[in-house]
Amino acid sequence: MRLVDDIPTVVQEAWRTVLGRADLPADADFFELGGSSIHGARLMGQLRAALDVPLPVQLIFFHPGLAEFTAAVGDAAQRSGTGGAGGAGGQAPAGGPGPLGLSLQQEQLWVADQLEPGNLAYTELLPLRLDGPLDVARVQSCLDLLLRRHEALRTRFPAAPDGSPRQEIGQARTVPFETMPLEAVDVADEDAARRVALGRLAQPFDLAAGPLVRAVLLRLADQAQVHVLLLYAHHIVADGLSLAVLCDELADSYAGRALPEPAPSYAAHTRAQATLDLSGQRAYWRDRLAGACEVELPVDRPRPAVRSTAGRRLRLPVPAAVRDAVDGLAREHGATRFMALLAAFHALLGRWSGSDDVTVGSPVSGRCGPRADRLVGYLVNMVALRGDTGGDPTFGELLARTRDHTLGALANADVPFSRVAADLVSRRDRSRPPVFTATIIAQPTPLTLVADLGEVKATSFPVPRQHCTYDLSLYVWDTGDELVLD
């Protein structure tokens, strides 16, 4: 851990890097200088790595001023002592006394799988187009290395004799985790490749039996030296940021570059969570969501008795000028771009549904420990963001309400959503998700991944998903040139 006296220098260096600024005024405000939710996540990741201190992403939202933020980071550093073992970045080994239960994040996905076994909406896919002279044996070796480095990829979730779930982490180089089998398939062209990708996507995972990751390599007959690598994983062992980590390490390994130090232990993250007292946060959610209305969107067909995950997607570009205007409006009200988009989403859904009480969900990252940005696993929790459009507010007034409600949600985001829902909903309705049916997601990963494998270049291979978890999900990417709404 860096000395506390160094923290002001480290913080200022991180702000300059993330914000792309050479100078910082004494009264600098992170969001007034152009920072966004994504910038905030990058900032906290850099500081966790530099200081080896567990720092939650929420810290920058509660302390956006440079001076107050620096003081808050200093307080966190002093509380952590020597640092290193807190939160999701601990180095504790996978083993430990007694059976290993599920993390708070895994718990909600396990519950969802019990209600809807094999739900295809929870399958993650990393699709990469590989251009160049590919060494298939080397790809296999790189996949096996990923399996050894990341215990989450060797985890399955059998039930204990009393029916409760547990994590069972397999030893590397032992059956069935001695290798990550790479299935090779010949296809005619890119359209055929997408059909195969979607077909494999429709194959469910068995959480109890595992493995919960698989790989397929497609060889395109109509393009010399072009392959498509498909890496599938159940969401319970890998979230979106995990796939970005795996992509980076696959590229570095294939190209012969040095990999970062071994990944932290997800088991340590689980054990640290088991010590949390969440009673106060659960009380917050019971009060905040009491009496929340179910949003009835104007759908084009009757809602089935049992909800289907079949869906479609629509992509809409938003010009940079509009994006910049949204950012300016958010800064005027001490808010972030995400908060402005959330307020607009609340207003839109309220108009569609005819209700001034609208609740939507959004994922919050649980990566707060040192080096947690390199941790592969499921570290996302859904939070319910209840909007109030009553009283015919101006958009500025609605944005102020949204800001306050969002900060409250972030401060109480440790409770797994499955527990929040259990506290609120006495009987599950299989025709809809509990609490909210719409979500908004500000994507922290690029719309298009690009990786350098030496002689081979990897880029994202578009595969249109046809499964969804909610009635309506709004994904937001910033490509630099524009916003993309998906």
Kindly describe this structure:
By secondary structure, the chain is α+β, with helices and mostly antiparallel strands. Helix content is 36%, strand content 17%. The chain has 14 helices and 14 strands. It has a six-stranded mixed sheet, with helices on both faces. A four-stranded mixed sheet has the order 7-14-13-10. A hairpin with a 2-residue loop joins strand 11 and strand 12. The protein is globular and about 60 Å long. The model is unreliable at 82-97 (pLDDT under 50).
* Major sheet details: 6 strands, mixed
Intertermini distance: 40 Å
> Major sheet: order of its strands?
4-5-6-1-12-11
Q: Which whole number gives the mean pLDDT?
A: 84
Silhouette: globular
Question: In DSSP terms, counting alpha (H) and pi (I) runs of 4 or more, how many helices?
Answer: 14
